[in-house]
Amino acid sequence: MTRPASEPTLFDAGPPLAVVAFDLSVAATGICYRDGSTATVKTRVADGDRRLLQIAEAARIAVGGPHLGLGHAPTLAVLEDIPQNSHAAKAISMVHGVVRSVLIEAGVPYALVTAATLKAYATGRGAGDKTAMVMSAYKRAGLEFADDNCCDAWWLWCAGRDHLGIPPIELPKAQRDRLAKVKWPEIER
Questions:
Q1: What InterPro entries would the database entry show (predicted)?
Q2: Separation of alpha carbons 185 and 103, rounded Å
């Protein structure tokens, strides 16, 4: 995916806007970095709770900052919210705690986007399977992903950039309007 050499800024001064995004899971966390590239952090069940340390380290790298030679911290992080009424909610809650801790320590505000809102933003429908998300990314941006975790993280990244006024792709207004359901943090400079 190509993008301009310098990103637009929200205000006249300050660092360029940057978004990172996380599709959190204890087994396979999808990450979308500032430049729109993606990766999945896969963990092994045999590692038990130590998997949380792997995810925390991956989140620190994604958030970056001066200590990693990446300049400023991201303007915003976007996370898929904890699913309600799911057997996976307990494990995902632990992952959320670890990643949110990394974000708080780095001073990065974050937003939570429900799966239904993300699907509606990406596809126009709040229900459906992962295939619709993958097909929409291919149709809208010509992108293919290693797995659906990367795809979801990329759509979260798109939502964050869209919220900041720098959408990486064009979507119908009705789909973009779905982001009004998200409680976005105030961005301070």
A1: RNaseH-like_sf, RNaseH_sf
A2: 13
